[in-house]
Write a structure and sequence with these properties.
The chain is an all-alpha fold. It has one domain. The chain has 18 helices and 3 strands. It has a 3-stranded antiparallel β-sheet with strand order 2-1-3. Strand 1 and strand 2 form a beta hairpin. It is globular and about 60 Å long.
Length: about 400
């Protein structure tokens, strides 16, 4: 029995990859609903009336940040086991890690922006001239370099001008550098003081002010300016003193949570679990997973969960999945589907980076959309998912055969 458990623990946990894929698909639903709502002559009628376009996925995006923080810490632990690596400076370690992340994401990040430029100016803003499109590309140089979430972005027409959701990828790269530097400089201080302190107090402020993650939202030392976009305080000329992009704060909050989750899970993995304990964990995991999926699709229905309850559900589901001691996770890690789940997880960020302009394209292929003739959500959502997944697979195949090809 003990050997069986050892084999199970050494086996790659692909259940977490399935979650990453499902959330990526759900986020397509969120943005497709947003595109439809905003394209109806600027009205939000569709948004307010519909409850079946995955609006809850805007909250479960936290899952991506939790896993990003968890695997960042895991990467540091593995690398830091090498004595020669320990002798290097904290800055060199952080820059090396960041470059690895950039090298893996930059090709698709650039492609996502190019698709955004071509499709948005051609379909979302068809009145844009060639000169305006060229100016947009030049003024978006910082975005192409991955600094979107820092506020260095094209201001163009609205915030759909390129590929808005890419703020999240930019934020992961930026926040990842500073967190990795902190671990490299003093791991004990980082995990024992800085990470829990910021996580607890930033979470409290985030909840108290009802802040939301958004590329256009800006917070200034606890203050937010008035907002009409439902995404928190928007930065304006009257924004006081210095502030931070809410997207960066959201990602930092989630990645710090993932970092703390890593140390907690490592501790819990050392314990032995009886059949009753594993059954209890299974029930808890199943309950939280069903509730989380229900909220993602139907956030405004019977359960009416608070955003911070949803955050707790995300932490519990991801924590239990990474712990890998319950029967549900064990079932998802079966030999028959493990390769499929692992592959789906490997293209989840590609799906995230490419879906938005494709959603705009699908909406425009069907013709002009107005508040009187709103297209069905599923009519746009389903082909957007299919095209995005196929394109992500093709891009991964090309990158694996060229840029990411392993050297002998």
């Amino acid at each position: 029995m003990k050997k069986k458990e050892e084999r199970s623990s050494s086996k790659r946990n692909v259940a977490i990859e399935l979650w990453r894929f499902l959330i990526a698909i759900a986020i397509i639903g969120f943005h497709v609903g947003w595109i439809i709502a905003r394209s109806c002559d600027g009205t939000n009628g569709y948004w307010m009336q519909s409850t079946n376009w995955f609006f809850g996925s805007s909250e479960v995006l936290l899952i991506f940040t939790l896993t990003a923080g968890y695997f960042l810490t895991s990467h540091f632990q593995k690398k830091n086991a090498d004595k020669d690596y320990q002798k290097r400076s904290a800055s060199s370690k952080a820059w090396e890690y960041t470059w690895t992340r950039i090298r893996g994401l930059l090709p698709v990040l650039i492609l996502g922006y190019i698709l955004g430029v071509v499709i948005s100016t051609k379909f979302y803003y068809p009145n844009y001239t060639f000169q305006q499109s060229c100016a947009m590309v030049l003024n978006s140089a910082w975005e192409f370099l991955g600094f979107h979430a820092a506020g260095l972005r094209s201001v163009g027409n609205e915030f759909f001008n390129l590929n808005g959701p890419l703020w999240f990828i930019s934020a992961i790269i930026i926040v990842g550098y500073f967190l990795y530097y902190g671990l490299s400089k003093n791991e004990d201080t980082m995990r024992g003081l800085i990470a829990p302190f910021i996580f607890i107090f930033l979470s409290g402020w985030w909840a108290f002010t009802n802040t939301r993650a958004a590329q256009t939202a800006w917070s200034t030392l606890g203050l937010q300016t008035a907002s009409t976009n439902g995404m928190g305080g928007a930065a304006t000329g009257s924004t006081a003193f210095i502030g931070f992009n809410n997207g960066l704060l959201f990602v930092m909050l989630g990645m710090l949570g993932g970092m703390l989750l890593y140390y907690l899970i490592n501790y819990l993995k050392q314990r032995e679990y009886s059949k009753k304990a594993r059954l209890a964990l299974t029930i808890l995991n199943l309950f939280c997973a069903v509730l989380l999926l229900w909220y993602t699709i139907y956030p405004a229905t019977w359960f009416n969960l608070d955003r911070w309850t949803v955050s707790l559900l995300c932490i519990l589901v991801i924590g239990l999945t990474l712990l890998n001691k319950d029967y549900l996770t064990e079932f998802l890690n079966n030999d028959y589907t493990s390769k499929i789940f692992n592959y789906l997880g490997s293209i989840s960020l590609y799906i995230y980076m490419l879906h938005y302009p494709i959603g705009i394209f699908m909406l425009r292929v069907l013709g002009p959309n107005t508040s009187d003739t709103i297209y069905s959500f599923w009519l746009i959502f389903i082909p957007t998912v299919i095209i995005t997944v196929i394109l992500s697979i093709l891009i991964k195949m090309i990158l694996d055969a060229t840029i990411f090809r392993k050297k002998a």
